[in-house]
Design a protein that fits this description.
- This protein has about 140 residues and is an all-alpha fold.
- The chain folds into 2 domains: about 100 residues, no CATH class; about 45 residues, no CATH class.
- About 65% of the residues lie in helices and about 0% in strands.
- The protein has 5 helices and no strands.
- The protein starts with a helix and ends in a 10-residue tail after the last helix.
């Protein structure tokens, strides 16, 4: 087998795996879009094409009772703040660990890596107790 044939086979296998990955990624998205056009009773059926096509779900989404624009703004606002905060603090910490030489840098970096190994579920209850003690329940400050 020549080198060119090996490359061709490797390319075919690579593209087949990429195509499989694309189908696996697009599948849930198509299912979500399909479900938006189904009646509530049909949402758990196994058909991709809705048996009864409806736009009523979108009418309910933008109804006055739900206040979708406010919910969308809250999600956008919190996402922007969290992203900006993460970029700022992580960039500064990365710069310090990469460029600045100081005593105890390796120990501090190891401690940082070890804290990343702690699952967030472990700190959920202590964080909730602290947030409750500070009377911040129902605000966006703890986020």
């Amino acid at each position: 087998m020549t080198r060119q044939n090996q490359k061709l086979i490797l390319d075919i296998v690579s593209y087949a795996l990429l195509l499989l990955g694309a189908v696996l990624m697009v599948g849930p998205f198509l299912w979500m879009v399909s479900t938006t056009f189904k009646l509530p009773g049909d949402q758990f059926t196994k058909t991709l094409i809705p048996p009864t096509f409806t736009l009523n779900n979108f009418r309910e989404l933008f109804s006055v009772d739900l206040n979708f624009p406010l919910l969308f703004w809250n999600s956008t606002y919190i996402s922007i703040l969290i992203t900006a905060g993460q970029l700022l603090t992580c960039s500064m910490a990365a710069f310090c660990f990469a460029v600045v030489k100081f005593k105890g840098r390796d120990v501090l970096f190891t401690a940082l890596l070890l804290t990343l190994l702690i699952p967030p579920q472990v700190t959920l209850i202590p964080n909730f107790i602290i947030i409750t003690y500070l009377h911040l329940i129902g605000t966006s400050v703890p986020l």
